[in-house]
Specification:
With about 425 residues, this protein is mainly α. It has one domain (about 20-210, about 220-415): MFS general substrate transporter like domains (Growth Hormone, Chain: A, Up-down Bundle), CATH 1.20.1250. The protein has 16 helices and no strands. The longest helix has about 55 residues, at about 360-415.
């Protein structure tokens, strides 16, 4: 798709669905919102907890990355396996297992436990469960909704994801404040996370749309052959390959935004945990506004136009934070970086699902998301080390360069392909 190419609506196409009346979509959407709030609480609390206990940004980055690390090992086989399983069962079990893991961790911390190793082990186990859950969850909408509604549904998801990024840090900061120590405060936060997984699991149990595998019994392709077919399709599809690699780089850089902002607030402006949480929540509020612009931006700019727009937005946001003379300026940079994220992710999801054959959605999407999820631990691990070496401002300048280089390269390759 060329830069700036818009989508023309077919006059004979049926009118848009009222998504509020699609029962199973609302259930999946609500389950995602609920569990995402808890995840955002934990993702806010975890690096602050480790930073406070160890004083090391690299340790905080490494432990935070552990939850995403299993994606690197398990995503491809998980995609082929989940394609053969009932996705409703996979999502339900995933929610309840994570509820147990974080519930036990909450109890341990509230009882006075302080082991960073046990916290890291819980995060790693949660990451293993998350791989199978996410592979199933990310391909449910094409089973519930017609293809023409995927972009709008994805916009909903991105908007509410941005909203959870407002609520999560604010709630996380407040819950930490309830504890007599950072560890007990984190116990309250992880307990709240566990409760959200229970609510989400109950919701998924109520789905009516059949999410059993479409493949007929006795006609299954061997698992290894199925994996090879999915990998080969993505690798030989030039556009999918290009989008997957660009997304990896963007996710790696974007995954460090919160850690670098927290470090900037701590080292340059001496903000405490509660104030940092409030600032993150205010910045993330811009993501909610960005989600409302997703449809308009996609119609006006096209897929690659949105990628360029968001790449330039992320570059500018990182540079503003890097040069910020005051807290409010850094907050403006964070708000800009988070505002452009929802249009990017909703546009890329809808476009990806239209160019992947429906029979291979789960397998190929799992490989695509493998690169995205691998970007998080790579970004956090490398970012933590570079943050200590370069300082918050130097690292933010480097991240801006990565965003700009990725955006320009994608446009050049797309034009050559046309």
């Amino acid at each position: 798709m060329a830069l700036g190419k818009t989508t023309v609506r077919d006059p004979d196409a049926p009118p848009p669905l009222n998504l509020w009346r699609v029962r199973d979509f609302v259930i999946v959407w609500w389950a995602q919102v609920t569990s995402r709030v808890g995840t955002q609480i934990s993702q806010f609390v975890l690096p602050l907890l480790v930073l406070g206990a160890t004083g090391s940004a690299s340790t905080a980055g490494l432990i935070t990355a552990l939850e995403q690390l299993p994606y690197v090992v398990l995503a491809i086989p998980a995609g082929a396996l989940v394609e053969r399983w009932n996705k409703q069962v996979v999502m339900t079990v995933g929610n309840f297992v994570r509820a147990v893991l974080f519930g036990l961790l909450a109890g341990y911390l509230l009882a006075g436990g302080t082991s960073i190793v046990l916290i890291a082990a819980t995060v790693l186990c949660s990451g293993v469960v998350y791989v199978f859950f996410d592979v199933a969850n990310s391909t449910v909408f094409p089973r519930i909704l017609p293809a023409r509604e995927l972009a709008r549904a994805s916009g909903w998801v991105e908007g509410t994801t941005a909203l959870t990024e407002v609520l999560g840090p604010a709630l996380g900061g407040a819950l930490i404040g309830l504890g007599s120590t950072a560890m007990t405060g984190a116990g309250y936060a992880f307990g709240a996370d566990a409760l959200t997984y229970v609510v989400a699991g109950v919701g998924v149990l109520c789905l009516r749309t059949p999410l059993r595998p479409a493949e007929a019994p006795g006609v299954r392709v061997p698992l290894r052959a199925s994996i090879r077919e999915g990998v080969a399709h993505l690798w030989h599809h030039a556009e999918l390959r290009r989008l997957a690699l660009a997304n990896f780089l963007n996710i790696a850089a974007l995954g460090t935004v919160w850690l670098s902002f927290m470090t900037l607030m701590r080292s340059e402006f001496h903000a405490d945990s509660s104030r940092t949480g409030l600032l993150l929540a205010l910045g993330a509020a811009s993501g909610v506004l960005g989600s409302f612009c997703s449809g308009v931006l996609h119609r006006r700019l096209g897929t690659y136009g949105v990628m360029l727009f968001t790449g330039l937005g992320w570059t500018a946001g990182e540079l503003i934070m890097a040069l910020a003379p005051a807290t409010w300026v850094a907050e403006a940079g964070l708000a800009l970086a988070l505002w452009v994220a929802p249009p990017y992710f909703s546009t890329l999801y809808a476009h990806r699902m239209t160019i992947i054959p429906q029979s291979m959605h789960t397998r190929i999407n799992s490989i695509y998301r493998l690169l995205a999820q691998a970007g998080l631990p790579v970004g956090l691990s490398v970012g933590g080390v570079l943050l200590e070496a370069l300082g918050a401002r130097g690292f933010l300048g480097l991240a801006a360069a990565v965003f700009l280089a990725t955006a320009v390269t994608v446009q050049v390759l797309a034009r050559r392909a046309d």
